[in-house]
Sequence to fold (263 residues):
Amino acid sequence: MRRTISFALGFWFVTGFLPTAVASDQSVDDDHPLLVAALANRVAAAACSLGESERDHALLPATRADALPDGYAPPDLVPIASAGVPQRGSQQLRAIVIPDVLDMTQAAQSDGVPLFVSSGYRSYAVQVSTYRYWVGLRGLEAADRVSARPGHSQHQLGIAIDFNFGSLGGFTTSPAGLWLWDHAQEYGFVFPYTLASIARTGYIFEPWHVRWVSRELSMLMWQEEYQYSETLAADDYVALARSVLLEGSASATTACERVLSAT
Fold:
């Protein structure tokens, strides 16, 4: 079913833009372990498309609760200008993301919608400055809802993007915002911070922020309607895939062979 997010602007005016929310550490759907296990296998099977050498990078957790490994720096960072990806400033992304982001921005352009990267890779040091800025502007509690603490930002992965960043309401209901919401999953991108996931993630709704997970996994998540779920946010799907493929005793290749044969 096709839904849009044009209702979001009114929501934010009513609730005061920064709702009281904390990151949830609740387990995912404890009452239905068999359903979760079945979903985890399907999610892992979709994530197998990433390839063994890529899974550990693309499926790294970066949430309020989960920090990236100390000193993490993504491989294969490239300037996106060299690939012809529209941008503001001078942005970098991982090379593995470039084909999909280029396809997506070109498709948007073909539909008459300007879509450009306003923020790509951010180092730990840059995130220190970014987070400090928000703390100074709004105080610690509010800053934690709009900005990741250093070491917890998905931008440090090199596969997260902010598009056409501006005011929340302005982007949400803009042609770019509506187009991105309807089409991001077709190009391997998901929305980690949705209206439905505020209580779970602890972050405000960010319709301009997407994370790349592969086209196979993003389409599966969209079909599961993660974007409207209060229980399973995008990062929960990433965690499910990682738990099956990378955190057991078997190798990722063996785990993929098992889940692919079962689906």
